[in-house]
Design a protein that fits this description.
Protein name: histidine kinase
Organism: Azospirillum argentinense
Structural class: alpha+beta
Radius of gyration: 61 Å
Strand content: 25-35%
Number of strands: 23
Helix content: 25-40%
Shape: rod-shaped
Pfam families: HATPase_c, HisKA, PAS, PAS_4
Oligomer: single chain
Largest sheet: 5 strands, antiparallel
Enzyme class: transferase
Keywords: Kinase, Phosphoprotein, Transferase
């Protein structure tokens, strides 16, 4: 018997499980060495203590029943689970077997064999908690979660999957879910799924589901393969995301962008967007046309390449458009600036309006640019027209004043001398005096007739009624006739006229009467404005271009460069004051200029104050018919 007892003690000492003998009074009679490992208490400390004191209070009733002496001798009870107190203060989960060996004289107690299953129990608890957590997350997840077999049949799916697919909660299992797919998407899904099953690659598909009410749901299906030890695909796990709102938002954004682009592209004004550094991000067709540069050449370039002063405009307060906060702010003002065309570097005026918005911490400026060249030209034309109208009004007033003076003087002479003759105030014997008065009346009448002729000429020319009677004209003879007509005026003024004719002057085609009128006007002015005793000069020569030039030079007061346009304006003289030193209607040069231009020629004035004046008539080579 001693050998058997030693064997039992050896077994208890070497057992990996917790082995103990509980005496009939419920105390540990013997304890194996594993108690230290399982409960942290050495065997000798447990011997003689009540076994149930080590059991968790909630488990004691069951443990007492299992350890009771009522069981038949030799019968094993178990396995059963309970918790034993650990010396460190926690509880260890054990799985125990109890065998009644009270009748065995070598044991005389209940043999307890307990295995520490704490790690397994805790792992099972964690697994159950994880499963609960997974199920909770799956039920509350905003995306569908699914697991399929190799062919795509649903093994499990959360309610959200069914909701996205438009199916009842219990309907997705198996292949039935594919019936809810849009008919156009089924072949593509079948093909992609089969290919992924062969390749073992993840699945990423955009699909559509058709609900019972006809509504279409856009979804993104993402799946990862489940493989066996050999890498063969056994199934899939993945998610199904409802993309309907995203698709609708994208469609709305695309529609808004298309609408905005259509408006911007059709806009008559240039529209340019740029960042805070002045880098261009968009450049509409109107901007391309305005600046003469393709959008591709301007994108990601600086806007000051086209609008050099835009930086100053944005900073000087006139176009301060950026305010923090993310809301768009208008410029509040439209400013004018100067822009540069990209192709030729031509500068032109623009009108610029800028707004700004902050998005994502970045500033974006939108500039609306209008080419105001035409408007500026119209403004200039209006100003010029206004000034011309004012000038014409002044000219009219001056003309009336001059006309009053020019007409009254000879008319007073005519009337006065006629009254003397009519009333014979000098007596009947003063016949010679009366004849002189009659001559004065004739001269005054001729002067009045010349004034009327000049007015009729300028009126006819400006009305477009001038007609040239063209015949061959000898320049030398033309000059001689003009000199004869101004000889009397030249003699009275004491201004001799010198003649300089180039040899071999060619014959020209023109209206001899009108060309003689031009020379007479120019010679009359030369005599009128030259100082007495100083000669005037008429010169005829071949022009550098092969045409004919006739030039008249005086030694008079000259004309300042800024007054030359006045000299060419009808009814205007450089000196417009009532106390003018020189008489005249101011029509001579303007009539002469128009008559020369009617012959296709040019009338040029070279003059300076105090240095006299030279007026040159240049007839074109086309008027030359033969050399002299």
């Amino acid at each position: 018997m001693r050998s058997l007892e030693r064997y039992v003690h050896a077994l208890m000492a070497n057992a990996g499980d917790f082995v103990a003998v509980v005496s009939p009074d419920g105390r540990f009679a013997d304890v194996g060495a594993a108690s230290l490992r399982v409960l942290g208490i050495p065997p000798e400390a447990l011997r003689g203590t009540f076994a149930l004191e080590c059991v968790h209070p909630d488990d004691r009733a069951e443990a007492a029943r299992r350890l009771s002496h009522d069981k038949p001798s030799g019968e094993a009870e178990g396995p059963f689970a309970c918790r034993l107190r650990h010396a460190a203060g926690g509880w260890r989960h054990i799985e125990a077997m109890a065998q009644n060996r009270l009748d065995d004289p070598d044991v005389r107690g209940i043999v307890l064999n307990a295995r520490d299953v704490t790690d397994r129990v805790e792992a099972e608890q964690r697994l159950r908690a994880s499963e609960v957590l997974y199920q909770t997350l799956a039920r509350s997840a905003p995306v569908g979660i699914f697991q399929t077999d190799r062919d795509g049949g649903i093994v499990s799916a959360n309610p959200r999957f069914a909701a996205i697919a438009g199916l009842p909660p219990d309907a997705p299992h198996g292949h039935g879910w594919r019936a809810a797919l849009h008919p156009d998407d089924r072949p593509r899904l079948e093909a992609d799924w089969a290919e992924a099953a062969v390749s073992g690659q993840p699945i990423l598909l955009n699909v559509r589901f058709c609900g019972a009410d006809g509504a279409v749901t856009f979804a993104l299906c993402q799946g990862s393969p489940l493989t066996d030890a050999d890498g063969r695909v056994q199934g899939w796990v993945g998610t199904l995301s409802d993309m309907t709102e995203y698709v609708r938002t994208v469609d709305a954004l695309l529609m808004a962008e298309a609408r905005t682009n259509a408006i911007v592209d059709a806009a008559a004004d240039a529209i340019v967007t740029m960042d805070g550094e002045g880098i261009v991000h968009s450049f509409n067709p109107a901007a391309e046309a305005m600046f003469g540069i393709p959008a591709a050449d301007m994108l990601w370039s600086r806007i000051d390449r086209l609008i050099p002063d835009i930086g100053a405009l944005l900073q000087d307060g006139g176009l301060t458009v950026y305010q923090p906060g993310g809301e768009a702010h208008g410029a509040g003002a439209v400013r004018e600036a100067v822009a540069v065309r990209g192709g030729d570097g031509d500068r032109f005026p623009i009108e610029l309006s800028v707004s700004a918005v902050e998005t994502g911490g970045r500033r974006v400026f939108t500039g609306i640019i209008r080419d105001i060249t035409a408007r500026k030209r119209s403004e200039s034309d209006l100003i010029a027209a206004k000034e011309a109208a004012e000038s014409a009004d002044r000219a009219k007033s001056t003309f009336l004043q001059v006309m009053s003076h020019e007409l009254r003087t000879p008319l007073n002479a005519v009337i006065g001398f006629a009254q003397v003759i009519e009333m014979r105030l000098l007596g009947a014997a003063e016949v010679d005096r009366y004849i002189d008065y009659a001559g004065s009346i004739r001269q005054s009448g001729e002067h009045l007739l010349a004034i009327i002729d000049d007015i009729l000429d300028i009126t006819t020319i400006e009305a477009g009624g001038l007609r040239l009677n063209e015949t061959p004209v000898d320049p030398s003879a033309l000059v001689g006739e003009a000199l004869t007509l101004v000889a009397i005026q030249s003699g009275k003024r004491g201004v001799p006229i010198h003649l300089d004719l180039e040899d071999g002057l060619p014959t020209v085609t023109g209206d001899a009467l009108r060309l003689r009128q031009v020379l007479v006007n120019l010679l009359s002015n030369a005599v009128k404005f030259s100082n007495p005793g100083e000669p005037a000069l008429i010169c005829a020569r071949r022009g550098g271009d092969g045409g004919l030039e006739l030039a008249v030079t005086d030694t008079g007061i000259g004309i300042a460069a800024e007054d030359l346009p006045k000299a060419m304006t009808p009814f205007v003289q450089v000196d417009q004051s009532m106390a003018r030193r020189y008489e005249g209607m101011g029509l001579g040069l303007s009539i002469s200029k128009r008559l020369v231009e009617a012959h296709g020629g040019r009338l040029r004035i070279d003059s300076a104050p105090g240095q006299g004046t030279t007026v040159t008539v240049a007839l074109p080579p086309s008027r030359v018919t033969a050399d002299g």
